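Translate sequence into structure tokens.
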Amino acid sequence: MEYNNLSKLVKKVLKTDQSGNTTMPSRREMTSKIFAFIMLIPGIASIVMTVTSEGGESIFFAISASFFLSISILLFGRKSRLEFNGTEKQLNLKTALWGCFQKSKIVVPFDTLSFELSSIGAQGPYQIKFVDQLYEFKQYTDAKMFISFLYTKYNTTAVETISDWPNKTPIRFAQSELYNSPQVTHDSHDSQKANSNSHLEDEDFNSEDLVFIEIWDRKSLIKLSLPFFVFTAIAGLVKYGVL
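Result follows.
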């Protein structure tokens, strides 16, 4: 499958560099971007409070603004992308900070890399898991196209848990289907389930539905909320003259 044959949605996730390698944002990069936007909120609020406050309060909010905005700038410049290196036949993780401090490390060679396709509900959305990454597509065809492209270009393995959940079944790619949607193998006892999901084969490949990348768990959300409560408490103590 050629890159130009991919849907617009898949192209938003998969990019090709000058060397012809395929790159995509990692969970770490997406987490950094979201935290960068979140840090803008207290940063901008602190700027407003700096202008409207006087004396010690103004100094405190000026320091807070510098702190939050500095973190936001650093996080916006943090890059962490997965690179499918066809020459070295391995998946690399490339990191950088505003174009500096560039590093690259091997994640896994292609001969041990496997993609797993699963469905959350009877009609999706559909999740793709590999290494420590999790990508979610609303449309079946986009998820299968994503796997088909990487499977054919880098000779990886692919399994699915849709036809015989929770068992993992290898995805069989017919040569005639590599330019469309790859076919999932079905056993005879799965024929009824296959018929109920037959509408998936007719999905539009140019769907503009969003793709989601799982970036945090419950612990991450708790950690994210802690700075807000801490700085809110400190601001209250400063306002009422306790500090």
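Note: The radius of gyration is 23 Å.
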